[in-house]
């Protein structure tokens, strides 16, 4: 996209359309992940070579397959894969397979230093109090876990309790992320989530007693939601003294209930922009600082830093000014892994199976439980790391040039020029900074930056499919479009 008129036309065409993801955390979309024969030994050999020129640590994501049933299914909006939770036996079985997968990777990852740990899902607080030490023991047995490392566990209000939280803290989990989404009872019913506002505040009270830092996810843009309702939720959460709030637009995509059946009841993109701006103004007036398009932090007695995501927002250098590769390993069901290399050997990504039965079958057969992967080209690596850095709302031109031998402004000059005219970005000798309305439209900006590469990949995919129709085996391992959308927005997973 090299022509200013083309850029302007693209913006005008898309700025009033609903954005399906809160932000794109990577490139390319897993729609383009076509490699059915992922070689773990080869990936790890490349990682070892990259470690000769940069410090390589791992951000560990440990997935949980299960969620409580809701009506509509998957809270009406969630695109991430999950299985319906029935009983403890499922969790015991899954932990066994998780450990076995870890043993398969021990020759490749054993003893690697971790930068952060994140237990996600699914719903990772479905485990019983006695199972959290098992999770942490598996992590410590496989990796080098430095003292004071941030270990985050996410969950939903109704499956936290004081006993569980105490058990989590005792075994080394030191940060809680709670998906609240909304406090209004009628809006809760709209998503089928079986929670109460009392459960939210009970959990926050327990975390405060245990001195466990906690962050809250809140979503705006619900059917018939008003600005006053949104502000009521924000006020209620802020008044608890919490120091980290993730506040983002309702995701509408794929084959979810909201996407198929309730689009007419949803606010327009312009209305969501207004809600975003009002929410941002309110949070900043309460002492919060915006650190991503949707993350707001303030200082307090307990740490608020969301290290798992923060490390991916500074991919070019560490605090000592040295090149660093923050790889991600997705351990377990639907885990997503990124192993980055150098511009000369860019690295790879892959995703584990999104059906738990297939995940089990591969491990039983002593196969790595991988669905499909992708080998990065040099341009893919540049775009991926650019997308990661943009999460932090600025790009360091000097660091980009040092790593890639080119200026990020020159590389996308017509796009940046147009965005500067719109006052969506500011540009100086050192940084490109996303500002104003551009923060809300960051997914659109990212799509423009990747437009030419994505179009080329799309044409290649169409040509390849016409020349060689996929086999039955390959088709069965495919990634649905709605799931691909979710993966593209996953937290550095």
CATH class of the domain at 33-311: Alpha Beta
Largest sheet geometry: 9 strands, mixed
| CATH topology call of the domain at 33-311 | pyruvate-formate lyase- activating enzyme
Question: Approximately what portion of the residues adopt beta-strand conformation?
Answer: 15-25%
Structural class: alpha/beta
**Tally of individual helices:** 20
Per CATH, the superfamily of the domain at 33-311 is: tm_1862 like domain
Q: How far apart lie the N and C ends?
A: 28 Å
Q: Which spans of ≥5 residues are poorly predicted at pLDDT below 50?
A: 471-493
Determine Rg (CA atoms, Å): 22 Å
Mean pLDDT: 86
Strand order of the largest sheet: 9-10-8-7-6-5-4-1-11
Q: Estimate the helix proportion, in percent.
A: 40-55%
Q: Please give the number of β-strands.
A: 17
CATH architecture of the domain at 33-311: Alpha-Beta Horseshoe
- The geometry reads as globular
Description:
- This protein has 493 residues and is α/β, with parallel strands linked by helices.
- It has a domain at 33-311: Alpha-Beta Horseshoe (pyruvate-formate lyase- activating enzyme).
- Helix content is 42%, strand content 18%.
- It contains 20 helices and 17 strands.
- The chain has helices at 4-14, 40-50, 88-109, 132-142, 162-171, 185-191, 197-210, 227-238, 257-261, 269-285, 307-310, 356-364, 378-391, 397-404, 408-411, 413-421, 442-449, 451-467, 472-476, 481-488, and strands spanning 55-63, 66-67, 83-84, 114-120, 151-155, 175-181, 214-220, 244-249, 289-290, 295-297, 324-331, 336-342, 345-352, 370-375, 394-396, 425-427, 431-434.
- The strands form four sheets. It has a nine-stranded mixed sheet, with helices on one face.
- Helix 4 (132-142) packs parallel to helix 5 (162-171).
- The longest helix is centred in the N-terminal third of the chain and has 22 residues, at 88-109.
- It is globular and about 60 Å long.
- It starts with a helix and ends in a 5-residue tail after the last helix.
- The model is unreliable at 471-493 (pLDDT under 50).
